[in-house]
Backbone:
């Protein structure tokens, strides 16, 4: 090979290594920035992009910088149904956290999407509740929900601080968020 060809190859290799190196530094900078902004203990909450019963799309990232309470529930769960009126009240109050709920049509014996929507539209005292539809339970699985209802508490830094199965009263939910940044 000629000297000129070797020089071009060497230049190309140096260019590629430099580009890869700066990309790695950028990822490392992003990771260290995220760690520095982390206020709560735990792993970051799984991002989601879900449609709600009225057709609007919600993303967890839409609530960046805010605390988020997520209640996972099912239409066949008597404990969940007994808590809907209380949840509706919580959802209608001004809080320092956002209240969302997730139902998984077609997963774990839940009604299919259209049947659930029709059923939910007939349920009284739910006007303040945002119900996100998790088709086939992919987000429910990622949040390791094992039973209904389950509460997930996400800090303003996006960290999933805690998940807890069982019914939580509004006071218990508010008290839990007092210890979450």
Residues:
């Amino acid at each position: 090979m000629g000297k000129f060809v070797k020089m071009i190859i060497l230049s190309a290799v140096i260019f590629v290594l430099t580009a890869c190196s700066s990309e790695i530094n950028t990822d490392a900078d992003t990771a260290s920035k995220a760690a520095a902004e982390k206020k709560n203990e735990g792993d970051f909450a799984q991002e989601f992009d879900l449609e709600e019963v009225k057709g609007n799309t919600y993303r967890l990232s839409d609530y960046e910088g805010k605390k988020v309470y997520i209640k996972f529930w099912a239409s066949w769960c008597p404990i969940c149904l007994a808590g809907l009126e209380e949840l509706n009240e919580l959802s209608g109050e001004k809080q320092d956290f956002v209240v969302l709920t997730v139902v998984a049509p077609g997963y774990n014996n839940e009604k299919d999407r259209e049947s659930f929507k029709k059923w939910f539209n007939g349920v009284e005292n739910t006007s303040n509740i945002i119900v996100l539809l998790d088709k086939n339970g992919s987000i429910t699985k990622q949040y390791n929900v094992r039973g209904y209802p389950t509460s997930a508490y996400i800090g303003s830094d996006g960290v999933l601080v805690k998940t807890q199965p069982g019914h939580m009263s509004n006071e218990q939910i508010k008290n839990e968020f007092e210890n979450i940044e």
Notes: The beta strands are 49-52, 57-59, 67-72, 97-103, 131-133, 150-154, 160-165. The first strand starts at residue 49 and ends at 52.
